[in-house]
Amino acid sequence: MSHHMSEYTGPQCPIPISDYPTVMLAHGGGGRLTQMLIERLFLPAFANPALEALHDGAILEVNGIRLAFSTDSFTISPLFFPGGDIGSLAVHGTVNDLAMCGARPVGLSAGFILEEGLPMDDLWRAVQSMQAAAQAVDVPIVTGDTKVVERGSGDGMFINTAGLGLIPEGVCISATRARPGDVVLINGSIADHGIAVMSVREGLEFETALTSDSAPLVDVVFSILDQVGEQVHVLRDPTRGGVASALNEIAAQAGVGIRLEETRIPVGEAVRGACEILGLDPLYVANEGKFLAIVGPEAAEAVLATMRDHPLGQQAAVIGEVVADHPGKLLMRSRIGGLRVVDMLSGEQLPRIC
Amino acid sequence: MSHHMSEYTGPQCPIPISDYPTVMLAHGGGGRLTQMLIERLFLPAFANPALEALHDGAILEVNGIRLAFSTDSFTISPLFFPGGDIGSLAVHGTVNDLAMCGARPVGLSAGFILEEGLPMDDLWRAVQSMQAAAQAVDVPIVTGDTKVVERGSGDGMFINTAGLGLIPEGVCISATRARPGDVVLINGSIADHGIAVMSVREGLEFETALTSDSAPLVDVVFSILDQVGEQVHVLRDPTRGGVASALNEIAAQAGVGIRLEETRIPVGEAVRGACEILGLDPLYVANEGKFLAIVGPEAAEAVLATMRDHPLGQQAAVIGEVVADHPGKLLMRSRIGGLRVVDMLSGEQLPRIC
Cβ of A160 and B73 within 8 Å? Predict the structure, then answer.
């Protein structure tokens, strides 16, 4: 490494090297350390307005049309899990990021990093599953790339998908549009994905089968946007870091407070039990088929009804509201009535969950 | 793995499992096995016209404008090498793929897969280098993603970039446009990137420093397109698999023959020497700042002059022609006058070169 060390004379790394000399698992966990990496390292380096919006994707205006552009790498372990696999997840993750920008997907890219020795049949199954997932939302996989690394330099298969989407007129989704009085909804029960993956990985047996919620949200999102598009202020899929981290980010970006009602947040019984056994708070566990919608109060009832009419929203609920108090913070009224601050995820709760 | 095995009842993997039970390094080498993976596994699964064009990127028509969309994952080892690093390479690779579609880059995504334990300073340097490379071609990095895998499940840092570009009117680049009589040009000497990386990796010492040619080709490409856009039929950057594999692909896609003149192909003296020592044919070695242009004969002189006027084309040369004979094949007239078939790369010549 002496080669580049001797040449480099620019500014020094803004992450305190004494505290974080190396990359840690928690830097990829979607919580506080991920945020530090983004805010101190990536944002100052890549500085540009599209990136600084800190959206699930970038919104670009090209020749008068608004495009959404998003990327996600999938490193989930195991590759196949109850309710999905790395292939379907890689499609759902990126089409959902586009939907969270209010965009209809136009095309996906697929970049494979394969480890030498991966069973060819595993690649085949993952690819078939990607295609089935892409076909279900009617978006083609239009371009791709495959790299192979030596045995021991990867872990079976990593997939990156990037996505391109088109934002219809009248839709304007942005975290900064959350404002006091807005209502916070979710389309169903939380923590299903993370707990399903963890239970397979740890070899846990539960009475009820735990299944990932991995699903494409494009259709349910557009059933809402087509109806009350302008009243939908923020959309966010609470993946890594869970509902707590996603709402903390929104509160910080919009400079508002958010208040949750614990009793209103749907959590499946089996998932709640598994969380207790694993010592996990469902608020921090990843979802792959859920989205938070923050909407004007006048539209809340219609949005809830539309969600519940959709197969992916039958357990939809109003779970909280945006408030002017405690800007930048997420608070939750607990079952027994107390109000407590719900912080971002700190540390790494569930590595390799997506 | 019993979970997914028991559920799966669809068609079987089209790669002959008896011959290739697992993924091999050569499947990522850009040669024959990569082609087999694409043709037998990816294309039938993802079937759609944009992908089937087998371009360096997809060309999509959205609301009346033509967009190019491309992706590449970078797994190069070592991360820092003479003439570049994984960060600059990740930008050059994708902006070059867009340029090869005749598109001006609009925005890039960056997906990082980091291995736990990566020195934070290496990440910082790579990010700074990405940004410098992006700024040099005036394209913002608008969206990103970071994943961290456990120590031993990755190899320092992998970067995926996807790119979005806009194709101006009048430009129509496609391998299928190569036709007999067309002239084949290259903007300079071949094999510089692959040999520079190999020499560092193998700890070889040569009298002359060997430096990667990693560079953004957008400017030199558009200096040609702005002048004789409609006469430019095919553009291709000969990365993995080198000039030989790129021209074989074009010959197959267009159903034409291509004939090269060995004496006209620029190869640096030091690179030629290193190739002899390493037992490599420069025609198969990766380039990261070179492109092949196949142009109508009436435009060849102007294209050559424009290339030579540009800093990235001073050693540009006419190296061959498209012929009606031997469709689908690349032939080369050697120094001593004989004509021989130049096949695609078979096997893995240089792993982890990009």
Answer: yes
**Contacting residues of B for A104, CB less than 8 Å apart:** none
Give yes or no on whether B51-166 and B175-341 have one common fold: no
Q: Give the number of other Cβ atoms within 10 Å of residue A329's Cβ.
A: 18
Restricting to B residues 135-174, those with a Cβ less than 8 Å away from any Cβ of A are 140-150, 152-155, 158, 160, 162, 164, 166
- On whether the CB atoms of residues B26 and B284 are closer than 8 A, the answer is no
φ, ψ of residue B147 in degrees (nearest 5): -120, 150
Kindly state whether A204 is in contact with chain B, defined as any CB-CB distance less than 8 angstroms. Answer: no
pLDDT tens, residue by residue, A157-182 = 999 999 999 999 999 999 999 999 99
Residue pLDDT, tens place only, B126-157 = 999 999 999 999 999 999 999 999 999 999 99
Q: Are B223 and B312 a contacting pair, CB within 8 Å?
A: no
CB contact (8 A) between residue A143 and residue B73: no
CATH of domain B51-166: 3.30.1330.10
ipTM of the predicted assembly exceeds 0.90? yes
B175-341 maps to CATH 3.30.565.40: no
Strands A84-85 and B141-149: unpaired
* Chain A environment of B77 (Cβ under 8 Å): 153
- Asked whether the beta carbons of residue A69 and residue B109 sit closer than 8 angstroms, the reply is yes
- Judge whether residue A319 has pLDDT over 60: yes
- Which residues in chain B touch residue A13, judged by CB atoms under 8 angstroms apart? 120-121, 123-125
| Strands annotated E in B151-296 | 157-166, 183-186, 232-236, 257-261, 292-295
Q: Distance of CA A36 to CAs A239, B145, B146, B163, Å?
A: 18, 13, 12, 26
Angle between helices B218-228 and B86-100 in degrees, nearest 10:
10
Taking the domains of chain B in order of start, what are their residue ranges?
12-47, 51-166, 175-341
φ, ψ for residue B108, nearest 5 deg: -120, 150
Alpha-carbon dihedral B221, B222, B227, B232, rounded to 10 degrees: 50
Which of A247, A194, A259, A213 lies closest to A29, judged by CA?
A: A194
Angle at which helices A86-100 and A218-228 pack, to 10 degrees?
10
Quote the strand ranges of B101-242, DSSP E. 104-115, 141-149, 157-166, 183-186, 232-236
Is A140's CB within 8 Å of B51's CB?
yes
> Crossing angle, helix A120-136 and helix A86-100, to 10 degrees?
30
> E-strand spans in chain A?
58-62, 65-74, 80-81, 84-85, 104-115, 141-149, 157-166, 183-186, 232-236, 257-261, 292-295, 317-323, 330-333, 339-341
Give pTM, 2 decimals.
Answer: 0.95
- d(Cα B3, Cα A85) in Å, to the nearest integer? 11
Determine the Cα–Cα distance for residues B211 and A3; give it in Å rounded to an integer. Answer: 12
The residues pairing with A214 across neighbouring beta strands, listed in sequence order, are: none
